[in-house]
Amino acid sequence: MTLKKPIVRRSRTKILRNSSRVITRSHIPEISRIPKIIARVVNISEEKAEEILHSVNGHFITRHKNIEAIFKENFDKISRYILEDPHPSATKQLLIGALFTMEYSIESAALFNPSMVPHPDQTGVAEGCLRFIMSLRATGEGHISSIVFRSGILKEDCTFMIDPVSEYLETPRIRHDQSYDTHLFQTKLKSMKIYGDTIERVFKKLPAQFTFDELKTRISSLQLKNKEDIDKEVLQNINWLADSNYFIRFDSKNDISERVIFPQSENENRGIEDARFVRFIEEGKQPIYYATYTAYNGIRILPQLLMTKDFLNFDILTLNGKAVQNKGMALFPRKIDGKYVMLSRQDGENNYIMFSDNMHFWDTAKLIQEPKMPWEFFQIGNCGSPIELKEGWLVLTHGVGAMRQYSIGAVLLDLKDPTKMIARLEEPLLTPNEEEREGYVPNVVYSCGGLIHQDTLIIPYAMSDISSGISSVKLSDLIACMVPYN
User: Fold this and answer.
1) How far apart are CA 253 and CA 255, in angstroms?
2) From first to last of its 486 residues, what are the pLDDT tens digits of the chain?
3) Containing H/E element for 36?
4) If you count Cβ atoms within 10 Å of the first and of the last residue's Cβ in the chain, which end, N or C, has fewer?
5) Cis, peptide link before residue 86, omega less than 30° from 0
């Protein structure tokens, strides 16, 4: 008798939100209030300022690695609004900085939608084991989402250990030393259909590789000399593109569980959602990790691309082209016939595939799967990047059925021509059980990508948009349960 559904083993270990894990953010009100707040500190005695600062440090110094450096940084952001003379003392500067600082609990609401990839450093890992990195979507106050990480070891028997999680968190530094490629930048502007005289004049005196500061200086120079001839809307778009393509760096001394990719640009200021990480291999080159994610600014969504080799330095890039729309893009782990390949969901209902000569530009998409089974009648999408097997490209899918219940399924695409679906599960791999169905969004199981270890598919998955778990299934059982697609 042929099994219709493989046996999926759920780990008892759960990855839960922890509201005590906090970052600091600037807490700056409208400009008219800033001088008043500063004046209140300036007008107290030095002794009183020391007393208040000592009390503040007593409450927060153990929650952050260098709280006074944070206070000084936030003081510097508002120091131009100081109206009093003389300049505040060092103590008062720190106290002023503290008044313009707040804590933000990044995962107080949820810790979900995980993806899993092999760690770039396998040094010291026992034979038959695998060190992994897991990314998760952390959501806090105001429903702002960011990317956080966990690491651990998959053992030979496919059980796993998650490394201890640090009590501290670190947001990255913007890397202003990194340069932009002039040709690529101009090509992106052309794809936005705003190319013209103003852009020509901006880039005329910029080198083939330019920095953010060089771009700003060039724009300022043109604005000063040619106020009437410069298209202000075009300059806004140039600034928007530069702001949306940026570079960040974490401190290598800090643990990976301390790293938080928190929204930095204007187009993602309301959240970075559902990163789908993949280890990308290109012949003759060092492996590189890409992640597609959804940027949200409170009004519109924008698919973005993240790139890293070491999970310390990250390039954040815009995806451009007619086919770059909606959520749930997932990159294949290698080129096929010399082209980059990506799964997508243009219409919010069906699965599509896209091919491109350039990672940054995607102009066409082809429909490859429509809802067919009852558990996916409402909509389908992918659950992460395809995994290459000898039988074909294994794609985890999600389906939405009655009462908005999300389930995880699986399909196989042809290795040489992934526009062809060759097999699928008729029944879902995972549906929410009684423990998993309660949460911020009830009745949901969802993944942003798994991996293969010891002929076993490891699936990290979210439970009702609030917490996460890990499940596994034997590949031989999974393939045996698939039926030809027609």
Assistant:
1) 7
2) 455 789 999 999 999 999 999 999 999 999 999 999 999 999 999 999 999 999 999 999 999 999 999 999 999 999 999 877 778 999 999 999 999 999 999 999 999 999 999 999 999 999 999 999 999 999 999 999 999 999 999 999 999 999 999 999 999 988 866 789 999 999 999 888 888 888 988 998 899 999 988 998 998 888 887 666 778 888 888 988 888 889 999 999 999 999 999 998 888 888 999 999 999 999 889 999 999 999 988 887 888 999 999 999 999 999 999 999 888 999 999 999 999 999 999 898 999 999 999 999 999 999 999 999 999 999 999 999 999 999 999 999 999 999 999 999 999 999 999 999 999 999 999 999 999 999 999 999 999 999 999 999 999 999 999 999 999 999 999 999 999 987
3) helix 34-42
4) N
5) yes
d(CA 436, CA 401): 16
Element (H, E) at 17: none
Tokens (6 digits) for 397: 């899918």
Does residue 1 fall inside a structural domain? no
- Whether 431 and 388 share a structural domain: yes
**φ and ψ at 84, to 5 degrees?**
-85, 160
* C-alpha span between 275 and 292 (Å, rounded): 6
Kindly state whether residues 14 and 125 are assigned to the same domain: yes
324 and 442 assigned to the same domain: yes
Tell me the C-alpha distance between 465 and 273, whole Å. 12
Residue type, 47: E
- Give the helix ranges, DSSP H, for 192-321: 197-204, 212-225, 232-244
The tokens of 205 are what?
A: 């005196």
The CATH number assigned to the domain holding 129 equals 2.115.10.20
**Same-domain status, 115 and 195:** no
66, 87, 105 - which closes a domain: 105
Same structural domain, 319 and 453: yes
Dihedral of CA atoms 207, 210, 213, 218 in degrees, nearest 10, equals 40
**What's the structural domain count of the chain?**
3
Measured CA to CA, the distance from residue 430 to residue 450 in angstroms comes to 13
Report the alpha-carbon distance of residue 444 to residue 408 in Å, rounded.
9
Q: Are residues 189 and 101 in the same domain?
A: no
Question: Do residues 343 and 386 lie in contact, with contact meaning Cβ atoms separated by under 8 Å?
Answer: yes
Same domain, 459 and 470: yes
Residue 4 belongs to a domain: no
Domain assignment of residue 118, given as a range: 9-18+106-172+250-484
Instruction: Give the dihedral of Cα atoms 428, 429, 432, 435; nearest 10 deg.
Output: 160
CA angle 380, 384, 386 (to 5 degrees): 100
Q: Please, are residues 139 and 145 in contact by the beta-carbon 8 Å criterion?
A: yes
Same domain for 166 and 154: yes
